[in-house]
Structures
1.
Amino acid sequence: MKKFKAESQKLLNMMINSIYTNKEIYLRELVSNASDAIDKRYFNSLKDGETGVNREDFTIDVTVDKEKRTLVVADNGCGMDEGELDKNLGVLAHSGTMEFKEENKGEAIGQFGVGFYSAFMASSSVTVLSRKYGSDKAYMWESDGMEGYSITEAQKDGCGTEVILHIKDNGEENFDEYLEKDEIRRIIKKYSDYIRYPIMLHCGEENERVNSGIPLWKKPKEEVSEEEFNNFYRERFHDYNLPLEVFPVNVEGAVSFTSLVYIPSVAPMDYYSRDFECGLELYSNGVLIMEKCKELIPDYFGFVKGVVDSSDFALNISRETVAHNRQLNVINTALCKRVKKELLKLLTQQRDKYNSFFDNFGTQLKYGIYESYGANRDILEELLLFKTLNSDSPLLLSEYKSNMKDGQKYIYYANGSADIVKSLPQIEECREKGYDVLCLTQPIDELMLKILTSYADVEYKSINEGSERNTERKADEFEQKLLDFMKESLGDKVEKVVLSPGLKTHAVCLSAVGDISIEMEKIYAQIMQGANIKAKKVLEINPEHKLFVRIKTLFESDKDSLKKLTDVLYAQALLIEGVSPENPSRFVDEVCELLGN
Ligand code: ADP
């Protein structure tokens, strides 16, 4: 006997210990494995140019035998040889990084679609009899799901696989129902109705076909229940969560296709990582030809999941030819338009839902604008949401614009959450005039705004762009000497030192002149190490603040101390921008020394 791999063992224990309440899904998993196996067999026959093979020749047979307490799911698909039985059923298919959290084991099962193993939820033991297509040898895999399994040579007519479940005896739970024809019919109808091949239910002398065999995306929308759409989504795309939206897109024209498009409600864990592969399933007349066809949807809508079915594609379309396929482009354009339309609909009709969508996938839309250097702005700009200083819920740019005050020339933005922005010295002017401010919370935000430069002819302006805030007050001769001295002592860390009465209660802040903001400097420092792209910084001093009195006194009596104070003020202004002092420990020493005076 061979032992199960560790991950598989854990999963099996979970299955057997019945933590998953929705047990009936085991049948869905087995039927869908059977259907995949037939797909594979059929697809290979087409590729190899084998003749005489018809889709109609395939069936999935489900046989209930109350006496023997068995439920058998059989297919005449590709089958498995000895090695494949060992590899496919001995190791959990989705193993690797999977970790089971004690509290949500059920979710883990739903999420990862762990397929075959779910058979052990209803069975005391499972036998798999399989003969690979093209081979005359058959093998039998057997396991009670406890520790391991055995594989022996066996006899079987024709290629394909039979999965024989030895249904558990009734205990605290009722397992007998899985030997009831009506119950099995109900489960198949519920989860597997769209399966393309006939699912035949056999019980004693009775035989009947259970599924309609019409793919979900080919049925009129009115005839499909929400539950069916949801079940299909969860099973097909291995997402435990319900989808946010689902809509069919059917087009007749130069390229004709039917499709079913889903917008997920939650971004997958790996969505913003390099591992994530976007793309929709591509079918040719009901036969799956590519699982993740990324040419079907633009990257910025890469979160979309779904299926596209068109008889305009050859079955042997390859990865290489796909890239330049004109028909795919046509579909891409049509889907893109439709996704946008649905998002706008959500936006106007169910704002909360849209907000949640944006929380999950907004970053993707922003990258869509940034990476195309703004080429996609027409499609994406009106979908953007921003948290703002004055509004509790995020605003569209159009909403911000219509809230603008008389005389407000710019769309203002600042970096940080509303709470941080609220206490920024640079914000005082805006607050006084009642101007709202976009609160940028992601590094991509400002990069994107720099590319967009304006919205509906209103320019974006960072609140840090001091010269635009018009706060600088002319210094008298004495003050100018003092400012020159401070600038001198800071060297080329700053462009200049100015007086800003607009700071109100705050003593100092930094602003930037020119194209590079302080936030951009920070981002560049992260993404292009050693690039040394610097903002031209302006140190603003509030002449109304009581500290300024001290500055003036020091300038007259103790220039050395003023030099130290200037260093500290500069470091503090940097801190407001989220930049640590170059030498934190010296900074703290200096502050302590000042406090002690
Ligand atoms: P998944 O179907 O999600 O890959 P499963 O645990 O359900 O995971 O199945 C593991 C693998 O075993 C499948 O990927 C397939 O290669 C193989 N398999 C399962 N059932 C069959 C079958 N009826 N015919 C042929 N191969 C099968």
2.
Amino acid sequence: MNERPAFEPALVQEVATLLARAQRIAFITGAGISAESGLPTYRGVGGLYNDMTIDEGLPIEDILSGDTFRRDPALTWKYLFEIERACRGARPNAAHAIIADLQHRHEVCVITQNVDGFHVEAGSRDVIEIHGRLRELLCTQCGKRRSHRHFDAMDLPPRCMACGGILRPDVVLFGEMLPLRAVARYELALQRGFDLVFAIGTTAGFPYIYEPVATSARAGVPTIEINPDLTPLSSLVAYRFASGAGAALRAITAPDA
Ligand code: NAD
Ligand code: ZN
């Protein structure tokens, strides 16, 4: 493909060899892996919250917090609805598909901060969605769940058809705890360990994202970062692809193409 970035051939070969030999691989992903699906990242260039007009005069972290949701669910919902609308119509991209395909030859565990559900949609089976999933709604009163393909026009806050309780997306709002079941799976996955760790499209702002990469790197487990920009992980990892997710994964999985 002629738009392929010019990666160092030795870098590609080395990582391709590590990949071919690896049994258990972790893909730790963030908003950047979905950027090529047209989803805005969190901050930085094209960041979702940079462009969003916050007319309530509050930082977005406050609006999208558990506290605000309890006090004024309609306000939090107004922005959740906007976020969902920004994602509408987007689909998983080549990077999600390549990761899903690797599970036919390796044991693959995906740990993602993304709430878009794209890894599962692309077919990955072992996916830990540590921040939940936006289109999975949950009644705050009776606990009933419902998956949505997208949010239709709805009165905000939306209410449960069964009990009239306020619905919320099954995501971790700012200031909230991580979901226990996902944390248990995450801990188990780390205990079992990996022999190759990828960090793709994340600024690794959370310790539970940063630490597994840092710990692996310290333990001599090969670590690879794919990100066009530098992050706190960049100086720790053994290998770095300064590019988009799709281009680097295509090069690594088909080094002679
Ligand atoms: P982030 O926005 O802090 O960082 C995104 C990173 O992706 C940046 O380092 C950027 O350089 C990189 N990037 C941009 N384009 C890329 C590409 N084509 N390929 C590879 N990397 C690319 O994202 P984060 O670290 O995931 O933290 C964001 C938080 O916001 C998380 O809590 C997440 O739950 C939430 N969020 C989720 C989504 C989603 O579900 N798709 C989108 C935005 C934000
Ligand atoms: Zn209910």
